[in-house]
Amino acid sequence: MLSINGVSKSFGGVHALRDVRMAIPAGVITSVIGPNGAGKSTLMNVISGYATPSAGEVHLDGARISGLPPHRICAMGLARSFQNLQMFVDMPAWEVVATGFYRHQRASLLADLLNLPSSRAEERTAEADARKLLQFLDLDPVWWQRRAGDLSYGLQRKLEIGRALATGPRLLLLDEPAAGLNTSETTALGQLFRKIIAMGVTLVLVEHDLDLVMAVSDSIYVLDAGTVIARGGGEEVRRDPLVMAAYLGLDADA
Ligand SMILES: Nc1ncnc2c1ncn2[C@@H]1O[C@H](COP(=O)(O)OP(=O)(O)OP(=O)(O)O)[C@@H](O)[C@H]1O
């Protein structure tokens, strides 16, 4: 579904990604792990159009997406969340999710400004759809009308996932979705991933919580210093000497 063909990205003299190749199939959870500075966020930015690769290409279902702006890539069915929350803190929680439906709305800016019936009808549909998504996310209705910024960090993370799902993606990239969550929130997040897969949305995770990664991933890629050093199932990756060396700072032979 997503193919990453020889992607490199440099920032001045820093080679954040070097000839990265990945083949991510539909219908499963693929995780990308690696120590700090390995290039994970840079890879997510390249895939989602927030960064242009210095070399190589990214294809989604055979169509080249590298080099396109984020909104075009989103319209092609690829949505993302961010490592640091990108939240509309002053909106009611439901409306944060509803903004994701904007991509599907047809009313013109003028209709919006004049509050014409076409614009109001779309708003009502977006609100109803947002409520369905909030139920899907298992967000207690007591929070729906509350200011998003007043929700706990874990609940705001859910809103961010809801907003991304509202764009109707076939593939969803989640950049460190468990960061800042407690143990029970992380367990619930793993269950939510399974529900998202069951909806027919493919998931790619960048995650530091290795327990979560091992529990939910069908396949794992390990990046270190901008290079893929291992790929496979949890056990395979866990036992890989290069992975141990990257994480523990040990010599691969040791
Ligand atoms: N905009 C930038 N300008 C310069 N260097 C950058 C930029 N973005 C990333 N880098 C560098 O590229 C390398 C990879 O960074 P990146 O943030 O992709 O790693 P990461 O694996 O996501 O790290 P972490 O797990 O700490 O979030 C690092 O050396 C980083 O300092």
From TrEMBL:
Matching SMART domains: AAA
Keyword ATP-binding applies: yes
SUPFAM superfamilies: P-loop containing nucleoside triphosphate hydrolases
GO molecular function: ATP binding; ATP hydrolysis activity
Protein's UniProt keywords contain Transport: yes
ABC transporter domain mapped to chain residues: 2-250
Pfam families linked: ABC_tran (PF00005), BCA_ABC_TP_C (PF12399)
GO CC aspect terms: plasma membrane
InterPro entries the UniProt entry points to: AAA+_ATPase, ABC_AA/LPS_Transport, ABC_transporter-like_ATP-bd, BCA_ABC_TP_C, P-loop_NTPase
Keywords: ATP-binding, Nucleotide-binding, Transport
PANTHER family, sorted: CONSERVED COMPONENT OF ABC TRANSPORTER FOR NATURAL AMINO ACIDS-RELATED
Protein name: ABC transporter ATP-binding protein
Organism: Chelatococcus reniformis
Gene: livG
